[in-house]
Amino acid sequence: MWTFIHKLGSPKWCYSLCGRLQPGFWIAALLLIAVGSVWSLAYSPPDYQMGNSYRIIYVHVPSAILAQSVFVSMAIASAVFLIWKIKIADMAATVMAPFGAAMTFLGLFSGSLWGVPTWGTWWTWDARLTAMLIQLFLYIGVIALRGAYGRNDQGAKAVAVLTLVGVVNIPIIKYSVVWWNTLHQPATFTLTSRPAMPESMWMPLLIMVLGFYCFFTALTLYRLRNEIIRRESRTRWVQALAE
Amino acid sequence: MAFDSLSAFLDMGGYAKYVWPAWGLTLCALIGFAVWARMERRQLIRQLERRRRREARSA
User: Fold this and answer.
1) Angle formed by the axes of helices A57-84 and A153-166, to 10°?
2) Strand locations in chain A (E)
3) A127 and which of A177, A180, B15, B39 could share a cystine (Cβ 3.0–4.6 Å)?
4) Any idea where the Cytochrome c assembly protein domain is (chain A) (predicted)?
5) Are residues B48 and A233, on separate chains, in Cβ contact within 8 Å?
6) Measured distance CA(A224)–CA(A214) in Å, rounded
């Protein structure tokens, strides 16, 4: 186990491991999202109150879940980087950030579009929406801070600390629908009970969520390899890649 | 199948202007990220090749 963790810290070994893992995740993501899209757009039944406008849920919920999961992943990577000084962890946190920011924006965007026909407004200062907007600013802050420092170790530490502080917002997002009883509805999926919708509705949603997770994993593995090339470009083994 | 015809599918029960932009931007973003990552890799490999040639000349 320890030798495995030790090896994982080696950029060369990590590069080849990511290369071996990523095709499977790309294929899984493509299949799940393709099947999930067709199922949720054409085959799942319309909602008895919201009609077909509810089909936005199939992109809204996966992006909103990923917006949070990506930040938690970044926080874990940041903690690993700060405690054990493993450079790979910092590289992983770097490559995850833009995708997380995009997912947060997409969650807000699809939510707004859904809000117009269902709530009668595209924006309201509801607790969930506000917490999500703060999350978007946290992502932008993390990306901007890294950009401001360029590529040096002090900057990496500062970004890791900001990410760990920012992760406080995640439980606030999660429990915002419970603590403040405003417009946004409670979670669709919980670990303790069955979803309050028929299987023909939640099954494609689950497939979409899994597809988004696979996509995130595949993209992270792929871009982690890019980041390794970028940061280790002076080493002999990276230069050998261009042969 | 939840729709009778293709036009009914495209109309989304009158919600087309909400459903399609939400879906469209999300799927475009995913494709965009995949393409971006691929271009990033190509560019990095090209840079390595360029440096290699430069160093081969100066050596």
Assistant:
1) 130
2) none
3) A180
4) 25-184
5) yes
6) 15
Q: Are A202 and A188 in contact (CB under 8 A)?
A: yes
Q: Do B41 and A226 touch (CB under 8 A)?
A: yes
A192 DSSP 8-state letter: S
Distance in angstroms (rounded) separating the CA atoms of residues B53 and A242: 10
CB pair distance less than 8 Å for A46 and B13: yes
Is the complex ipTM more than 0.85? yes
Tokens of B33: 């990220």
Rg for chain B (alpha carbons), in Å? 23
User: How far is Cα A32 from Cα B19, in angstroms, rounded to an integer?
Assistant: 20
Whether the CB-CB separation of B38 and A26 falls below 8 Å is answered with: no
The distance of B50 to chain A (nearest Cα, Å) reads 9
Residue entry with tokens 């833009």: A98
User: Which of residues 7 through 46 in chain B touch A, CB cutoff 8 A?
Assistant: 9, 12-15, 18-19, 21-23, 25-27, 29-30, 33-34, 37-38, 40-41, 44-45
The C-alpha angle with vertex A138 and arms to A133 and A143, in degrees rounded to 5, equals 130
